[in-house]
């Protein structure tokens, strides 16, 4: 699958909050001081949207909408992300001017005639997205139900995951191969920020539905190859990889990449199949590996400079599941604070 890359270097404006100079504040106020841009802020707080979706909702030409978006991004009120050939926009949640974007949205009367019409059009976009995600689900339903039948129950895996993670805060979390976004839905409530990455844009459409909740403003999904993560080193406190490594020829690369972007004290938790002999899963379900042994996973942890932690085995017929955890040596990360 073609994946166009845009490296998301850690952005200072995203990571540091604090006082603004009067020039910065004036630029942000000017940027927001326009009827179309107010609406763009309001829309991008509710949902991550592409230029073409925004153009359709706002009802202006694409070049005009793009110009307004640029002004808002330059002022730090919006963030833009590449996803394949698309560019997505969302309200900046961190950085000096981020509180201004939220405040504007909170002050804006959404019952006002034109604003409420715009929100109705946003709902249409969301409904269309749901329909696309649903059709992807239906096309793959057979595959998913077959895997569910063969494996340990989701509930059992979740219980074991919670036992390994404990019940504290999780800090900044990254879910590798997020798929349906299930792990985000389960864990992101305890995270400061949570990002799910997946290489498949249709899966991202499904995951977006799982995180389209008012209490998940801090949660996002991004298109990325987990063998080459678009994040700087020491960016996360918790990284999860649930049922994804067996699709890769080189899962050890993913473990090294996870170790790079983990903060000292941060944790990597892998849940995947234990060694099995269902050879047909390679041809029928594109599995590249027939499960993993403790020795294999632990050797990857060691090579990546991680310390092996707790692990659990869950017996399933015919596919048992293992959960392995590792810690990056060094100071405690944000999780558990
Ligand atoms: C079986 S699904 C698991 C999804 C999710 N983790 C869960 O347990 O519900 C595997 C996911 O890994 C994704 N994937 C496979 N190879 C990938 C890669 N190199 N980079 C990112 N995602 C990948 C697939 O697109 C798919 O969504």
From TrEMBL:
UniProt-recorded Gene Ontology molecular function terms: DNA-binding transcription factor activity; S-adenosylmethionine-dependent methyltransferase activity
- Superkingdom of origin organism: Bacteria
The record's listing under InterPro entries reads: ArsR-like_HTH, HTH_ArsR_DNA-bd_dom, Methyltransf_11, Methyltransf_Superfamily, SAM-dependent_MTases_sf, WH-like_DNA-bd_sf, WH_DNA-bd_sf
Query: By its UniProt entry, which SUPFAM superfamilies does this protein fall under?
Result: S-adenosyl-L-methionine-dependent methyltransferases, Winged helix' DNA-binding domain
Domain HTH arsR-type: residue ranges: 17-111
Question: CDD domains annotated for this entry?
Answer: AdoMet_MTases, HTH_ARSR
Which Pfam families does this entry report, sorted A to Z?
HTH_5, Methyltransf_11
Name of the molecule in the record: ArsR family transcriptional regulator
Where does this protein come from, organism-wise?
Answer: Minwuia thermotolerans
């Amino acid at each position: 699958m073609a994946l166009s890359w845009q490296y998301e270097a850690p952005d200072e404006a995203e990571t540091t909050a604090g006082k603004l100079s009067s020039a910065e504040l004036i630029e942000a106020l000017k940027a927001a001081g326009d009827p179309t841009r107010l609406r763009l802020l309001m829309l991008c707080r509710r949902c991550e949207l592409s230029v073409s979706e925004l153009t359709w909702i706002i009802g202006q030409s694409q070049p005009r909408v793009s110009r307004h978006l640029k002004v808002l991004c330059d002022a730090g009120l919006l963030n833009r992300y590449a996803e394949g050939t698309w560019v997505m926009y969302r309200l900046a949640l961190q950085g000096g001017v981020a509180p201004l974007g939220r405040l504007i949205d909170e002050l804006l009367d959404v019952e006002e005639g034109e604003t409420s019409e715009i929100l109705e059009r946003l709902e249409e976009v969301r409904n269309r997205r749901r329909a696309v995600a649903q059709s992807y689900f239906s096309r793959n339903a057979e595959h998913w139900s077959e895997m569910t039948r063969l494996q340990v129950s989701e509930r059992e895996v979740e219980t074991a995951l919670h036992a390994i993670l404990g019940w504290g805060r999780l800090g900044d979390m990254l879910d590798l191969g997020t798929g349906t976004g299930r792990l985000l839905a389960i864990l992101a409530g305890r995270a400061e920020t949570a990002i799910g990455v997946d290489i498949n844009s249709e899966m991202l459409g499904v995951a977006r539905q799982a995180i389209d909740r008012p209490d998940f403003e801090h949660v996002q999904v991004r298109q990325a190859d987990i063998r080459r993560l678009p994040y700087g080193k020491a960016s996360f406190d918790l990284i999860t990889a649930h049922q994804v490594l067996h699709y890769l020829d080189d899962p050890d690369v993913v473990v090294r990449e996870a170790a790079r972007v983990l903060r000292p004290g941060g944790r990597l938790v892998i849940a995947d199949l234990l060694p099995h002999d269902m050879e047909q899963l390679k041809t029928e379900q594109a599995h590249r590996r027939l499960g993993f042994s403790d020795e294999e996973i632990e050797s990857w942890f060691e090579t990546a400079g991680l310390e092996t932690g707790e692990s659990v085995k869950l017996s399933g017929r015919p596919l048992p599941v293992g959960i392995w955890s590792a810690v990056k040596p060094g100071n405690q990360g944000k999780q558990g604070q």
